[in-house]
Every structure is written in structure tokens, then in C-alpha cells.
Specification:
Blueprint: H1 2-34, H2 48-51, H3 56-61, E1 63-68, E2 77-78, E3 85-86, H4 88-99, E4 103-108, H5 111-117, E5 124-125, H6 133-138, E6 140-154, E7 183-187, H7 191-205, E8 212-216, H8 219-228, E9 233-237, H9 238-247, E10 252-268, H10 273-288, H11 291-299, H12 314-319
Parallel strand pairs: 1-4, 1-5, 7-8, 7-9
Antiparallel strand pairs: 2-3, 5-10, 6-9, 6-10
């Protein structure tokens, strides 16, 4: 009798445990369904006259393989589900892809590995690429945005740091010698990272202290370093800085003027001219129907809108400098 009672008790406990596990799983599922994914909601229909420009190898597959490095908000970053990439660059590229009758297959990658992998692993690189003459030697770029660069300090500038965009003699910056001897945070392999190396050379030539350049793999780490006081300045794209100031609830502020205005572009292998032409046509379609502007307005970055997309040249890059 005792053994039967014990078995009955065990069966009840086992059933209760299973029930609790199921309830917990249902709870997690319902929570995940309640996660809000912030997106512009713009949806495009396939335009056959433009879609026919897509290379056959891609059109047959129905997907564009995209190399991306999140977080780089508001261009691209992970939504609250920690899986879905969102942002204005994601929405713009998705809309252009839909015009081409394609879906995006986004691959998270280290920023500095994206361009070398285009043509082998990725069809397109989309990670807030500022288009420079050096990058144009490696890849073709289809323009989708334009932005400047800016420096940030902690709110109120507690260290009373000087404006790095003003030179020692009070003139508008040329070589940013004010940065000599300061600690500057930047994301690895970005245009700002490359430019800091140039400013470092200027410090050496002027006989001043070196810039202490601290590099991180993604922009969120750089922002955290500034907020925590690990760096004096942060050097970043102006649109990213604006968003960072919003999400840190005013813990950062821009110091000095926006500098170095430049195009942002989708990177495409130089041997894939058909894809570049297709993306240009799709971009100009969504610019023409107004959806491009709606996407940028949704993300609050409409100041970076372009009037027409094109495959960029060195002359285009020089025109914004």
C-alpha cells in the first residue's frame, strides 16, 4: 500500500512539473510575440521592367546575400528580439530589393570582413559604408544616403575639452591638431578610423603628443566607452551620433561642427555591374514614388536624403568634400 501511494504521488508530481514547464514555454512564446519590431512598414511590389536587370544567378535564387555589421544605429541594429536587423539602411535596401522581386538574406559579420567577402560570400555590403576614393578602388558603390562626421563628448563637457574642429589659431580645422594627446574612440575600419591615422601623422609632424586611439569592433561599444569615461572624444558619422544622443538620454553631446560630408553606399563587386545597375534603378524608383523619403522620415534622418541614386565615382566623392 505504501509503495502504491508513493508511485501515485510521484506521478502527480511529474504531471505538475510537465504542466509548469508547458505553462512557462507558453509564457515565453507569448512574450516573444509581444516584442515590438520597429520598422518603417514600407512594402514595395516587384517592377518587372527593373527586375529584369538582376543577374540571373541572383534572380533564380530569389535572394540577395547581404553582409552587415550591427549595431550601427540608426542605420542597422538589432530589434528587441535580438535577432531582427532594423534601421533606415535595412528598410531602404529591403524596399529596393522588393522592387527587384528579391528578399534580403542578411548575414551578421565583422565590419572589416564585409568588403573582402563581397563577390564570394556576399552579393552586397550594407553597413553604413562612407564612400571614399580608396574604397572605390576596391568596390563599386550605389549611393543611398549622405552624411557628415562629428565628434562627441560627455554631456556638459565635464573635462572642458577643446573643440577639435577648430585649429590652434582659431581657423576652421585642417589637421585637427587639437586631438593630439587626447583619447579618441572609434569603430574599427571605418572612414573615421582611417582619418584618425592621418591626424596622427599630423601630430607627429607638428612635434605634438600622439592621439591615443582606442578601437572597438562595433559602434555600440564606442558609445559605451564615451559614456563611461574611457575615452575623451568619440568620432562617428553624424546621423549615428544624433541617434546615440537620443538613446543615451542626453548623456552625450556633439562638440564642434559636422565635418567631412560624404555619400553612403551599398557595396557591390566591380565584376557585378548588372547588380549595381539594378540597385540604382530600384533606388531611383523608390525615390520617385516617395517611399524613400517616408523611410528616412520614419527614422528621423531625412536630412541625409539624396535626390538621385547612382553608381558613384571619384568625382562624386570629391564633390561633397
Amino acid at each position: 500500500m505504501h509503495s502504491k501511494s508513493l508511485l501515485f504521488l510521484r506521478s502527480i508530481i511529474f504531471s505538475l512539473c510537465i504542466t509548469l514547464i508547458l505553462i512557462f514555454c507558453l509564457f515565453l512564446t507569448s512574450c516573444s510575440q509581444d516584442v515590438e519590431i520597429k520598422q518603417s512598414g514600407i512594402v514595395e511590389s516587384k517592377v518587372d521592367s527593373i527586375a529584369k536587370l538582376v543577374p540571373q544567378s541572383i534572380s533564380e535564387k530569389g535572394e540577395i546575400e547581404v553582409g552587415m555589421n550591427a549595431p550601427f544605429a540608426p542605420a542597422e541594429f538589432f530589434a528587441d528580439d535580438d535577432e531582427t536587423q532594423v534601421g533606415y539602411e535595412v528598410d531602404v535596401l529591403r524596399a529596393a530589393a522588393e522592387v527587384l522581386g528579391l528578399k534580403l538574406n542578411i548575414h551578421q559579420a565583422s565590419f572589416d570582413t564585409i568588403i573582402p567577402s563581397i563577390g564570394s560570400k556576399f552579393d552586397v555590403g550594407a553597413s553604413g559604408f562612407s564612400v571614399s576614393e580608396d574604397r572605390l578602388k576596391q568596390m563599386d558603390f550605389v549611393s543611398f544616403f549622405k552624411a557628415g562626421e562629428a565628434f562627441a563628448v560627455r554631456d556638459g563637457n565635464p573635462k572642458k575639452l577643446p573643440d577639435p574642429t577648430i585649429s590652434d589659431n582659431g581657423e576652421k580645422y585642417e589637421d585637427l591638431l587639437v586631438l593630439c594627446g587626447q583619447v579618441v574612440g572609434v569603430q574599427t575600419a571605418t572612414t573615421e578610423d582611417e582619418e584618425l591615422d592621418d591626424y596622427q601623422s599630423s601630430c607627429e609632424k607638428a612635434g605634438k603628443k600622439d592621439i591615443d586611439i582606442l578601437r572597438w569592433e562595433n559602434q555600440a561599444q564606442v558609445t559605451t566607452a564615451l559614456v563611461s569615461g574611457k575615452v575623451d572624444y568619440m568620432f562617428v558619422d553624424s546621423d549615428v551620433l544624433g541617434y546615440s544622443m537620443d538613446i543615451t538620454n542626453g548623456e552625450l553631446e556633439q562638440i564642434g561642427a559636422t565635418v567631412g560630408n560624404c555619400y553612403h553606399g551599398f557595396a557591390v563587386n566591380k565584376d557585378n555591374h548588372e547588380l549595381s545597375e539594378a540597385l540604382v534603378a530600384a533606388m531611383n524608383y523608390i525615390i520617385g514614388n516617395g517611399d524613400y523619403d517616408k523611410i528616412l522620415e520614419f527614422w528621423g534622418v531625412q536630412s541625409g536624403a539624396i535626390e538621385k541614386s547612382k553608381q558613384l565615382t571619384g568625382e562624386d566623392v570629391q564633390s561633397l568634400m
